[in-house]
Amino acid sequence: MPVQRRDDGRETGGATGSREAGGRQEHGLWRGRRETPEERADRRWTELVQEIRVAQTGVQILFGFLLTVVFAPRFADLSDVNRTIYIVTVVLGAAATGALIGPVSFHRIVSGRRIKPQTVVWAARLTFTGLVLLLATMVSALFLVLRVATDDGFVPWLVSGVALWYLLCWFVLPMWARHRYTTRD
Q: Does one domain contain both 73 and 128?
């Protein structure tokens, strides 16, 4: 096999170069990336950090807003049920914030220990947990706001519809695509 030059100038190829890097051959063509485990961990970490940035911004804004609600004049007028919903929402927001910031701390503490592939796995788990907690926080916050804004019986139905939309966008569609495009007959 001839030696090839990658975009970054390094050479690849030789007798086993592309096979060892995890590519697979289909119909005579190599599929997948040709990267070392370290390169893959670096790429996956970079992608994960970009994803976390989006989620962190949303959860931090929501959590900051939730923390100020208790100081609003109308807070004293909330019923016990609405106060309980508020407390649950704040705790969910705090947990989501912790899970979504956790990968940064995890990476910083283990940096330089040559365990980036394991770090990426744990950071991905924390991120997924953070997304589930963010979903619960947003549904709970929406439920509280709509309960305070109106006493109509349609609020639980409306919130359930939004929760189903979040589940569809955040989990069902990606899982469907994962199954559809990665499962081989």
A: yes
